[in-house]
Amino acid sequence: MNHTGDARPRAVTIYDVARAAGVATSTASRALSNPGRVSERTRAHVAEVAERLGYVPNRMAQALPSGRTGLFALLVPDVTNPHHVGLIRGAEAQAAAAGHSIVLADGQEDAAIEAAHLRRLGSFVDGFLLVSPRGSADDLAPLLRRHPAAVFNRPLAGLPGVVADIDAASAQTVEHLAGLGHRTLVYLRGPETSWADGERRRTLTAHAERHGVSFHAVGPHAPVLGSGSAAAEAGLATGATALVAFNDLIAIGVLQHLERAGVPVPGDVSVVGADDVFGASFCHPPLTTVTSPAEPAGRALVDLVTGTAPDDPVLPSVLVVRESTGPARSSRSPRGVPFGAANR
């Protein structure tokens, strides 16, 4: 027990390392934080003692002379979305390789919460990694002025960024559905504040027109599983034979709703998602979707902030065909009721 009465063991300090190594505190500090200022023999000796004692440097204390903490803030719009697991993993791995650590913040799909995180974290991080930020460009600019920052799937003037190739993914999606005979498709939109949602709608519209496919968009919808029922009903009400969702969570919710409603997939209607999250391959039926370069994007964000990546890389996103898409029926009644259902 330490002198405070706390049963937890006391953290090892630089003073403990110096005492055990038989050197001055300033020498121990230089050996661990600025080894070029001591001899190699002293550096190795102090490092060995520090490792033996389990000493972990205090990042806040180290930041005092340099102004740098070695921390990057990764801000995601919804930490519960499985799509972001790859982004977090990629960013953490790349940050660790560069000698940095990641602080994770959840924007909760709310621009005000996002802005509050940026204000609070700005005092002790070295840079920001932003994933599809929901705030306006005018609101974000002053919050990011003092720090290096990089953005995924949201071009912002003056900031480096990385995007998925949404146009290529939309082209593959429409080509796949048109090849199956679908002449009408509906896009189940995501949040109004999502740049990716606008890009998906724009590129799907263009490629549908190129293939002579009738296109509708309904929404917006929150990008969560619970939006599936409303999105499915809105999409089916158009009479379209193919539903293309903003993301896999909406798409999986759509599949669940259609199963409860007795609408066969892909017999009566085909469903396509986006992101290829964990679970997309074993939902019922397995979901046709487009991949998201989440892990490479996380690594690229770190490289952009540290200045070691090419400017504004575009990462590939490809269609993965599974059992939720199939040949179009020649006709289908609106509101999700298959022809002949009343006579079954």
From TrEMBL:
CDD domains per record: HTH_LacI (cd01392), PBP1_LacI_sugar_binding-like (cd06267)
Domain HTH lacI-type: 12-66
Listed transmembrane segments: none
Keywords in alphabetical order: DNA-binding, Transcription, Transcription regulation
Region annotation Disordered: where it falls in the sequence: 324-344
Protein's UniProt keywords contain Cell cycle: no
SMART domains for this protein: HTH_LACI
Gene3D superfamilies documented for this protein: 3.40.50.2300, lambda repressor-like DNA-binding domains
Chloroplast is among the record's keywords: no
GO molecular function, one term: DNA-binding transcription factor activity
Domain of life of the organism encoding this protein: Bacteria
Pfam families: LacI (PF00356), Peripla_BP_3 (PF13377)
Name of the protein this chain belongs to: Transcriptional regulator, LacI family
Species per Swiss-Prot/TrEMBL record: Pseudonocardia oroxyli
Lineage: Bacteria, Bacillati, Actinomycetota, Actinomycetes, Pseudonocardiales
